Amino acid sequence: MHKNLENYLEEISHYLSGRTEREEILSEIRSHILEKAEQESGPVSEASLEKVIAAYGRPRQVAEKYLDDRPVIAPTFKRLLFRYTALFFAIHLVFIVFAVIFKKSLIIFPFFFMPRLGVIEAVMYLPAAFLTDFGIVALVLYFITQSGRDFKLPWPKFALDLDEVKAPDAKTLAAKIATMVGAGIMLALTGVAVKLFIKFQTIFLVSYNLENFRPLLLPRPGRRVSLIVIIMLAAGTIGLFIKVFALSRRITCWVDAIADSLALVLIGLLLRQQYTTLFAIDIQPAFLAKIHLALTFTLLFVALMIAIDLVSNLVRLGRKRLAK
Amino acid sequence: MRTARQEGHVMDNELGSIETEMKRGFLQLLVLIILEKDAYGYAMVRAFRDRGYEVEENTLYPLLRRLEKKGLIQGKWEIGEERPRKFYAVTSAGREMRDGLLAIWKKQDEIINHLTKEK
Q1: Which of B1, B21, B42 is best to mutate for the A interface (most A CBs within 10 A)?
Q2: Range of the domain at B69
Q3: DSSP for B31-57?
């Protein structure tokens, strides 16, 4: 018994679990290694075996060569995996939005289950939903691959096609001037908002008469929502100024990705706002409910657009070529 | 822009991967030829090496197993000597396959010779 050889075979055996011919495979490898060690270095020793074992290859690599070459998912279907997952997830997302807006749980057996969710819970639920969709699509493609039959699965085109996301073009002078003007406007807006906030503790006013100003929102939520909007404006301004002076396209992508992430967090905070205790002016309850619905829907739509932009920026950043 | 060193590295990798692909079929043919006379794995590795052809041992044994499963070669354990060895021999189906592969090989060789002479 040579301990190092037996340990090596034990490791290979582990990777060949479940194969009926495992013992025979191991016997053949054992015989080969012992004979080679003897032929090349004389009487077999732990040291001579070590040398032959090292040359034979890592246990997992050795075991893999005995396994069937048939892939889990056929190469022709691999591209479909993410494409179909994205499609499935988009449908899932629509159902989640419905579940949030109408406060109902939805079941489409066996694919979708959306429990009744609040906005924050819905955001937390998204990764789990994505993983479920990925798993279902992978499972279906696995079964199709293993069946060995020729299926012609369609290739749907999306508005955001990750394969077609291009690096942004190098900035022309006109584009730089436009960005600079935009940054100037944003700076002015931020300045006005900050000035209003210092004076009235809110930026949402019904009347801007200095002697008799009337806030649109109640003091506490008014302060909170105003601060969120000011942070959004300030972040947008800083982002635009960085983009004006950015030396590489990679920095621009980073700025956009960070701004998108921040915007998503701020929209999440806005969505948490209680609407029944928001307005300082009298609004009919039925009309208030409609405002609530419209605002929630608008914010969710904006969040979706920002999320798409965030994904495309992350795809751009993930491409090494962009840095060159 | 890739540097000359990077280009060389890419070239080496590509050459290595094509060589691996070419070797896969070539090794099958070599095995079917050499097993006209019974032989075991290590003896085959030695025989190939003596003729200037290095075989990865961990590739040869899985290949022998696959050929055996297809009925192109037949294996038999011999326990009598100091350690057990599995001897293989080509079957009639294997001989047929070997002749077919040799015909393809010769045809490919002719095409390459023809095309390189045209240059």
Answers
A1: B42
A2: 4-118
A3: HHHHTTS-EEHHHHHHHHHHTT----H
Q: Let me know: does B29 contact B98? Beta carbons within 8 Å.
A: yes
Residues of A with CB below 8 A from B46's CB?
A: 39
Per-window interface: B 51-80 vs A, CB < 8 A: 56-59, 61-62, 65
Q: Tell me the per-residue pLDDT of B18-39, one tens digit each, with 9 for 90 and over.
A: 888 888 889 999 999 999 999 9
Q: Which residues of B fall within a CB distance of 8 Å from A23?
A: none
Domains: count for chain B? 1
A323 touches chain B (CB under 8 A): no
Distance from CA of A22 to the nearest CA of B (A): 12
ipTM over 0.90? The verdict is no
- The reported pTM is 0.55
Could you tell me the residue ranges of all domains in chain A?
3-64, 75-158, 173-323
pLDDT value of residue A49 = 92
Cα angle for residues B34, B55, B83 (degrees, 5° grid): 70
Report the alpha-carbon distance of residue A129 to residue A138 in Å, rounded: 14
